[in-house]
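Troubleshooting: if your tokenizer reports a length mismatch, compare your output against this known-good record of 270 residues.
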Amino acid sequence: MNVFEALILGILQGFTEFLPISSSGHLVLAETYLNFQPSRFLFFDILLHAASLTAVCVFYRKRLVELIHVLFTWFSPEISSPDRDYDKQLIGAILISTAVTGAIGLGLKDQFEGVRDHLKIVGFAFLLTGGLLTATRWAASTAQGNPSHFPLPMWWFAVILGAAQGLAILPGVSRSGATISIALLLGMARVLAVEYSFLMCIPAIIGACLLEFRDAEITVGWDVALAGFLGSLLASVIFLWLLVWIVRKGHFHQFAYYVIPLGLYLIVFT
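Known-good structure output:
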């Protein structure tokens, strides 16, 4: 792998990680049609995901600072407001969602990874993503909504979103597509649905990287690693901003126009 290839792969990672088109599904296609062996570049793959994680932290830096402040002043009775109460619920919900995602990921990872050899199943997974995206066209969610409550009891909402994120281990099911779509369909405000989806992905990406790091070997030079990291970071920031803008405008469903034909192609021609 040279610097140019690393840069292109980094940009592709940032592009597919945040847009609801399934980065894992596209990786399967790359493995199949380009004879790519990701096991040789596991460290590089972890590095690209670390860049995407950095992009989320940069994009939501103000919210992360607010949530950290809530953690350190959790038991301060003199500090109370509807926004603070929501932030407390948000922290609890993310912890619950992370636990549910982790349980599904650890329990079903091997089974879902086996799907990589069956492109027709990946095709059906793309159709599932497309179906969820299409359904958001009729979601009752608003651009802003009420920032002081969840559309369901917090526990139920957290479990449902955590399960959606966990099932996105299946190649072809987009993590952002599944989690944002379900949050919108449940009635969450568009801005908050995107925020929850990406704040929830922070511990999920950290956990996945730590689990894979034990098997990773450094097989690329520092220049290749830096090119891939910077390419992924730049693309991740751009496409995360683009996705937030698209969801706010109510056009999230339009990504279905890409993933549904792709899924049908895999089912019919593979």
